[in-house]
Amino acid sequence: MENVENERPELSVIIPASDEAVKIPHMINLVKKLSPSIEVIVVCTGDAPITSLLAHGSGARVIHVGSHFTYDEGRAIGGYHARGDELLFLDERLSVPLQDLRKYVKAIKQGWDVVITSDSGPSSQEKSTPEKLAFQLLNHLTGNADMRTGSMYKIPYALNRKAFEQVGYESLAVPPLAQVKAIVHNLSVKWIQPSCPLVWNQAPVQTMIKNTSKILDDHMEAITLLTQGKGSRGGLLDGERYRNILQVPGSLHLRSVYLQEPNDWEGEGGANTKRNGHEPAKRNNKKRITSSQKIENRTRLSVIISVQQDEATIKRVLQQAKRLYPKEILVVVNGCHDRSLEFILNHSFYSMTTYVYPFPLGQDMWRAIGAQEATGDVWLFLCGDKVIRAEELQPFASACYRDVDVALRKTNKIPLSETSEISTLVLARRYLNSLFDRHELGVSSMNDLPFAIKQEAATTIGVHHLHIPPLAHAIALEQELRIANSYSIIDEIHVGKSRAGLKKRKQSLTSLGDYLEAFSYIKEKSLKKRT
Q1: Which of 50, 140, 239, 398 could make an SS bond with 363 (beta carbons 3.0 to 4.6 A apart)?
Q2: Contact in structure between 138 and 151 (CB atoms under 8 Å)
């Protein structure tokens, strides 16, 4: 039923369309059944006579735009002209059953401010895409993990008049930005799962569609708004890091330095290495460190090891590091209260230096401190609580000797069924790689140990940035360094300390803050490029 101009309709339905929207009459006639008090707004360019005639003939109000626009911009323009108390946003490419459309209108009438579309969640058989990862990450960051991949990028979505005015019509052109504004304004948001999978028809005008890169950029803008006023880390923990220590030369640090001279060289790590009180399992002889690799390691490789409460593993970690025959081993001990230091000092090696800090440095600070002291042109980072065979470590160094700048550990896919910080971190990892079109890296990250990096690459990144692994990773991607993640660890012993739940959660929150810091850096660089 059409409305005279001075009447305010209950419902406004907005449909952006191209000049090939031949199904627009059917869509208009369908949505008219939603309410007896309705206006249908079709937004099209001035050079779209076919759509304009079809829409007018079906009783719609047509808004002509002088230039080409994206579908999201068309919805924003239509929203600006809408007069209804309830606004429902559709798309010419999508046919939605009437019973599903009624769910959105009903939810708004029941008092919900914003109603968006989601899918069936983690159990869905739909293929994961960078866009869906971005949708899900944003929902995790806003505390709405239960919305899964729900997004205002998905059609349909609906708002009441109050929500529309608080979000602002301009924001609808950047759907994730509008979604975050709704959260910031404490608007109530409901998600609806369609009764059947929605099928999209191919867009007649490709310029009206945003590509993957633009969708990911839009989410970056939304994340920036989410952290506004809370600092680059979004107000999250910083892992009790002593960041200022990196601005002071190591010679002025409050630390003890032990340069260990060799006694009797123990060869390949000693013959009495045991695993959890047992003799080591027989190893696959196919993996060996060749004489030529040892020679190259001897002149080029620095091994940097972090140690805290690692008395159960540190001897075996050092034994495996020694079997690489590196140029040097640098051990950074901080906040240690067990016998780890005693075991370290009892080890002999032709070039091993131990830096002992009597206090905890904070999460991952040891990476930058060790790197500042390294003299090799390839650096291999290890953790003192994980025993990894030298044969498993060699490929990281060898990759950097060839044409790789950063050799990452290949991390297996992690299920996204939980809604904890861990799950959010997995999404953040994949989103960061997707931002730079490095989807093949998956969840691999400089967070994971071991990894190796060329000294030149670390200088490009900024050695001081290594204490924020996601930021270092983001800079490496932004600088187009050669990053590879084809190095899997298949024989790892982890018998170190068992972290308490609260400590583990703090570490996860710190890592999440690290990713927000990395996203902030990317956004800042993007703004500088535009200016």
Answers
A1: 239
A2: yes
